[in-house]
Amino acid sequence: MSSITQAEIKQVRSLREKKFRDELGLFVVEGEKLVEEALRSGFEVVRVWRRDEIGEAAMARISQLSTPSPVLAVVSRPAPQGPAVPTGLCLALDGVRDPGNLGTILRIADWFGVETVYVSEDCVELFNPKVIQASMGSVFRVRVVPADLPALARQCRAAGMPVYGTFLDGKDLYRETLSREGLVVMGNEAAGIRPEVAAEVDARLLIPSFGRSGAESLNVAVATAVTLSEFRRR
Amino acid sequence: MSSITQAEIKQVRSLREKKFRDELGLFVVEGEKLVEEALRSGFEVVRVWRRDEIGEAAMARISQLSTPSPVLAVVSRPAPQGPAVPTGLCLALDGVRDPGNLGTILRIADWFGVETVYVSEDCVELFNPKVIQASMGSVFRVRVVPADLPALARQCRAAGMPVYGTFLDGKDLYRETLSREGLVVMGNEAAGIRPEVAAEVDARLLIPSFGRSGAESLNVAVATAVTLSEFRRR
After folding, report:
1. Residue from B181, B229, B234 to probe the interface with A (highest A Cβ count within 10 Å)
2. A155-188, pLDDT tens digit by residue?
3. Cβ of A213 under 8 Å from any chain B Cβ?
4. Closest to B112 (Cβ–Cβ): which among A210, A225, A229?
5. Which CATH number is associated with domain A89-232?
6. Closest residue in chain A to residue B226, using alpha carbons only
7. Where are chain A's structural domains?
8. The domain B6-76 is classified under which CATH number: 3.30.1330.30, 2.60.120.280, 3.40.50.300, 3.10.560.10?
9. Within 10 Å of residue A61's Cβ, how many Cβ atoms?
10. A215 vs B136: CB contact, 8 Å cut-off?
11. B146: left (phi over 0), alpha (psi -120 to 50) or beta
12. Predicted TM-score (pTM) of this structure
C-alpha cells in the first residue's frame, strides 16, 4: 500500500477553500469517471490518489464527498484562454452564483456544442468542487473565459455578431429568427442580466410560459437549455 | 412574544424524517414566498411559525435550512388525487431519485402548463424538504399522482393518447410530429426508463447533441425542459 503523508493530506484538504485553490493553482476532482476525463483532457493531472493504495481512512480525510469515491485527482488549473472575440455560438454568464447551476450550464453547453462560455467576475469560481461535480466532466471540454461582459458584447456587435439575452419583457423565443452564431447572455439567479450588460443586448428574448397558474421563472440552467435548444434545432 | 413549546419544537423537528412525515401526514415549508404560496393554495396550513414571534433561537431549532428563514409553516399533506386517465399534456417520472431534480421538474411542468405529474413508487418522496424548496412553490400548483406507470401507459394508449419517452436510440425530437396531448415519460437519473415502462412507449424520442467532444447526457430536469419546450412551441 503506497502511503500518503500528513503534509499531503493537509494540502489536498486545503483545496476545499478557494483561498488555497487560488494560491496553489490546483483543484480536486473525484470519482472514476471524472478522474478518467481529467486524465484524457488537456489538463495537467498532478497526482492521483486511490483508496486501494492509501486506505479507506486516508481517503475519507481527503475526500470532499459525503461518500468518498475510490479515486481522487489533484489537477493543475489552466490559465484561462479562449478567443478574445467569440466565434460560433457562445454563452456569457452574468453573475451566476450557484455552483450547481454553473456546473449544469457547462454540461448543457457541452451537449449543445457551445465551445466557449464567458463568465463575469462575480460568477461562482469554476474550480469550486460543486461546479466540477455538477459539470459531469464538461469542465474539461468547454472553455471558460473570464470576461468584462459589456466590453465583450460591444466587441461582438462591432464584429457583426448578434448579442442575445433572455428577459421577462423579451420577444417570444419561438417566433424570433435566431442566427447560427452569436453571443447568448444569461443572467443572475435572482436579478437577471445587469443593466450595463442588458444595454448591449441586440435581441431581447423571452421563454413563454404556458401555465395558467403561474410559475414565475425557470431556473437559469433550465432556461439556458431551452434557449440553446432553440438555437440549435432546425 | 408568542411562545413555542418544547413539544411543538420536537414535532416540527421530527418532520425532517420521512417516517414522521408519513406518520403525521404533515410537511414543512420555509421562507416568505413559499409560505405565502402555501396559504394561497388549496393545501391546509396547520400552523405558521414566525421568527418575530418565537425568537431566533427557537427558529434555528425548527428550521431545516442552514440559514433559517423568518417564517416556517407546517402543512397538511393532501390525499393524492388526479385524473385516473391523463388528459392534455402530462408527465410521468419513472424512478427520479434526486429531490432537487423532482422539485425542478415540478417548476418546469408548472412553467409549461403541465397540470399533472405521475410518479412511480420509487421516485423520491414529494414532501422531502429539498423537493419543496427546489419546486419554488410549484408543488402547490402541479398535481402529483402516484401511479403504476406501465398500467397508466396502457390506459393512455387504450384512450388513444400517445405515450412518449426519451431514449438514447430514439428519433430526433426536433423532427418528430408531437401531438398536443400525450404522456411524456422521463426516466431515472442513471438507468433511464425501465424496460417494463419502455415497452409501453409509442414514440421513442432523442434530444440530439451538437457537441463534437461528447457530453454523454443531460440532467433529467434539463431534458424534461427541452422536451416540454418542444411540445409547446408552435
Report:
1. B229
2. 999 999 999 999 989 999 999 999 999 999 999 9
3. yes
4. A210
5. 3.40.1280.10
6. A226
7. 6-76, 89-232
8. 3.30.1330.30
9. 16
10. yes
11. beta
12. 0.93
